[in-house]
């Protein structure tokens, strides 16, 4: 609907900037709550539009996104550096995998059917607070300049600079979608962490395998460390992992994806103006110690939709204080080398019941459960790290580049 003054000014209730996992998830939950006038701004086709990517999460029973889940796993497996495999059954929880393409099409369809809902292919360039809302200035795919006037703006674009933090690590990875000549994968088992790969001098590395069929899988090489690798280093690591560890005699790489996830105890602001809110990784939705974001984005989006329905606007913290504090301790202990990363994670899977461990990784455990899990970790190094954290200064750090969070 045209506004006054500017012939290219339009008005709407809600503007969501960014069509990634967090932006589209918020659009999904707002339309499910019958919120009118939702506009999603997605970058036009070109260099600003990311390629198709993969998001994973765990859930039980039936969920909102079952129609677009491309793989679901009833068992999870971890391989230690000694080659020992530990397989757990977290029933009734299942590990689920979604590809961004089908997810986008589902949300776009819901937007088209929602009153006043729409998808705008444009590049958002500036957001300015105004009395009673905000203005979003953008350039449409055809070059037309456009101003959107909205009561509420939710911005999921990556931040240009990370907030100051005490710990700065990155989770960086490259994955291949491979097809084998013969059946080599068990589609019921997801390999979350395979530490049978050469470990870097700083941090840790692991393989990650999500079977899509007996002869197809997403195979990734991942590191937790301070600096991402050049693409050719990931390629070499993936080739070695497929050949020496998975022992795939013959395979074809059908496509690839790559990304970098910040692992930091930075405090991400969830508001940049009276009516402008940050969501997704930009708003702190990424779990610092694991890199998972998709599940937290759903929780956050549901709460935002419920608040808007009640006439109030708030973006709740995606992770609680205890979870953020424990993540900071773990990241610092990994960064200093006080704990051995592969031993730490394999130990958790060996000693903690799988459903409780997944709830812990999702930030849904009680203080008593967390205390019990803490006693199953290297208590001395973790306690020493916890005691020193309050005295560490927070420093700025560049934003890690390349790709979008796979989780």
Automatic annotation (TrEMBL):
What SUPFAM superfamilies does this protein map onto?
FAD/NAD(P)-binding domain
InterPro entries this protein is in? FAD/NAD-bd_sf
Name the chain's protein.
FAD-dependent oxidoreductase
């Amino acid at each position: 609907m045209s506004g006054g003054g500017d012939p290219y000014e339009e008005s709407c209730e809600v503007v969501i900037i960014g069509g990634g996992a967090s932006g589209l998830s918020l659009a999904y939950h707002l339309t499910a709550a019958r919120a009118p006038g939702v506009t999603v701004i997605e970058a036009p086709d070109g260099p600003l539009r990311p390629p198709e990517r993969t998001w994973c999460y765990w859930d039980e029973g039936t969920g909102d996104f079952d129609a677009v889940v491309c793989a679901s796993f009833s068992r999870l497996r971890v391989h230690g550096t000694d080659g020992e495999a530990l397989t757990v059954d977290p029933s009734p929880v299942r590990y689920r995998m979604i590809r961004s393409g089908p997810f986008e099409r589902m949300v776009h369809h819901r937007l088209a059917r929602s009153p006043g809902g729409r998808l705008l292919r444009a590049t958002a360039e500036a957001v300015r607070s105004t009395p009673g809302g905000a203005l979003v200035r953008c350039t449409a795919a055809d070059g037309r300049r456009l101003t959107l006037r909205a009561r509420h703006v939710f911005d999921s674009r990556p931040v240009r600079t990370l907030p100051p933090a005490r710990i700065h690590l990155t989770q960086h990875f490259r994955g291949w979608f491979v097809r084998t000549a013969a059946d080599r994968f068990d589609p019921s088992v997801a390999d979350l962490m395979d530490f049978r790969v050469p470990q870097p001098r700083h941090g840790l590395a692991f393989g990650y395998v999500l079977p899509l069929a007996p002869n197809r899988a997403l195979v990734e090489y991942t590191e937790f460390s301070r600096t991402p690798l050049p693409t050719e280093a990931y390629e070499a690591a993936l080739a070695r992992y497929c050949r020496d560890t998975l022992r795939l005699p013959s395979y074809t790489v059908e496509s690839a994806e790559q990304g970098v996830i910040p692992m930091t105890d930075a405090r991400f602001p969830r508001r940049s103006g009276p009516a402008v809110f940050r969501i997704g990784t930009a708003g702190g939705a990424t779990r610092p110690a694991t890199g998972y974001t998709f599940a937290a984005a759903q929780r956050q989006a549901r709460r935002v939709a419920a608040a808007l329905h009640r006439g109030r606007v708030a973006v709740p913290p995606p992770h609680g204080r205890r979870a953020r504090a424990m993540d900071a301790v773990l990241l610092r202990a990994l960064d200093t080398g006080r704990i051995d990363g592969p031993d730490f994670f394999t130990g958790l899977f060996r000693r903690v019941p799988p459903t409780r461990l997944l709830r812990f990784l999702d930030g849904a455990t009680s203080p008593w459960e967390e205390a019990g899990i803490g006693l199953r970790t290297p208590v001395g190094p973790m306690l020493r790290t916890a005691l020193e954290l309050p005295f560490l200064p927070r420093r700025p750090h560049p934003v890690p580049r390349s790709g979008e969070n796979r989780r």
